[in-house]
Amino acid sequence: MVVEVGYAQAWDPEARAVWRPLSAGEARERDAVGLPYVVVYRTAGREAPLEVRLVSWRDHHVGVWAYDDQGRRTHDVDLRLLDDPARLFHRHSVAWNYPDPETAEFDPECPRVILDLFPDGRGRRIEQPRGYYTSAGLTEEQRWTARPAFGEWPLFSAEAETPVFEAAEVPGGDAGEAPAGCWRAPRPAQPGPIGELFRPGARVTDGYHPEQTVVEPCRVGTLRVPSGVLALAGPDNLEDEPEITVPVPPGEYVLDEARVAYSYHCEWRKAQVETTSATAVRLLVSETPAVSWEMALGADDDPRLFIEDQIAGFTTDGATGCFADAGSFEALVSLFERGLIKGEPDLDGYEDLDDGSMFMHRTRDAATGGELMAFATTGDGTYPVWLGRSGAGELVSVVVLVEGMPTILSEPDGVTAGA
After folding, report:
1. Helix H segments across 209-347?
2. 156 and 201: one domain?
3. What are phi and psi of 16, to 5 degrees?
4. Model pTM?
5. Can you say whether the dihedral through the CA atoms of 44, 48, 49, 50 is positive or negative?
6. Which of 87, 86, 91, 89 is nearest to 76 (CA)?
7. Are residues 288 and 360 in the same domain?
8. Residue 220 included in any domain
9. R_g of the chain computed on alpha carbons
10. How confident is the model over 174-220, as pLDDT tens digits?
11. Are the CB atoms for 316 and 334 separated by under 8 Å?
């Protein structure tokens, strides 16, 4: 089997075409400095590519997309370059098994197998659409592959026949701006315009209510952090250590909620009802506005392993999160358990708040003065923690979205609100 090999700066998966073809020498230069490029493998008489390799060493990523004769992606393999420069880790893969030539690419009902692997030996195998989960069942050797030199990549799609590679000119389209859907390396979940949730007058939608208006943030109290380390966690998990910690100057900080007002038709009242609800909770480190946001990482989170839209954060099984002083976290969570779960009456250092806000409980450690403030989320699961920074890069706020990022609507003049 003769396989033609060409290089380009990017790949447009919708058009199944390259953007800005490269010579082998130009691709080699990009490879050496870690810049993204793609390798396209084709065979004569076949319109669809056989395989596309997507390389971005600066992102620790190599992807492999294999295609069938109908131009449908059949395999998506995500390899990562970690601490060993001589080998790549099989982080994630999806294999589609199209039952017939008429089945559309990525049809939700198409059988597919997903592998999700981690270097510490954890891993799971998911069969969709059945939703059947098992352990990955792979050996250590199966999780890793040797990192080949430039131009010596093995062909993932090759079976028994050894391919013969030939250099090929890759036809390119318009050399202007890259199409919006061009491949890029996987990246973790992005924050969205969080600041807009605290700007009165901004218009948003949660997808269920067509229009909501941001109202003045509701200040619900303060939190003492004498240790200089802020903790965010699900207090119901009763872990000894918080999942997310953030250094802050020792002190007392304002806590507030972002809220939206909207109307909806109440079925049992048979009338239109005006109401407000919380969208986010925030600890203000400074009154300086945040101009950028980043996701806080836990001690065990490795950004090199994040797949597309992956989140890090704290986990709750009781629809509850908390801001707390990390230096007295164990004592504060113990008080939370005794007050909320065990219901000890007149417990010193525990307060059940009833002010109509998302914040429900406060505990205070008498020995250190550190405090915990618990708040309600809209469900169980993992909640990212977003760090807002000033233009100078200083931490100015810590935010948790309690039900995901709403969509920002255009202003009345047709201009979408900024980030």
Report:
1. 329-336
2. no
3. 50, 50
4. 0.89
5. negative
6. 91
7. yes
8. yes
9. 26
10. 567 888 889 999 999 999 999 999 999 999 998 888 899 999 999 99
11. no
Q: Parallel, antiparallel, or unpaired: how do β-strands 320-325 and 229-233 relate? A: antiparallel
Please tell me the predicted confidence (pLDDT) of residue 419.
43
Query: Mind listing the pLDDT tens digit for each residue in 264-297?
Result: 887 777 788 888 889 999 999 999 999 999 999 9
Nearest Cα residue to 331 out of 308, 347, 311, 354: 347
Together in a domain, 232 and 327: yes
Which tokens in the block code for residue 87?
A: 């080998």
Least confident among 28-32, 97-101, 399-403, 406-410: 406-410
Compute the distance between CA of residue 173 and CA of residue 275 in angstroms, rounded to an integer: 52
Bridge partners (DSSP) listed for residue 395: 389
Domain match, 268 and 121 both: no
Residue corresponding to tokens 């976290």: 329
Q: Spell out a b/e string for 367-389, using b for 16 or more CB atoms within 10 Å of the CB, else e.
A: eeebbbbbbbbeeeeebbbbbbb
Question: How many domains is the chain partitioned into structurally?
Answer: 2
Are residue 228 and residue 133 in the same domain, yes or no? no
Q: What is the pLDDT of residues 346-358, one digit of tens each?
A: 788 988 887 667 7
User: Does 142 share its domain with 237?
Assistant: no
Domain of 133 in residue numbering reads as 2-167
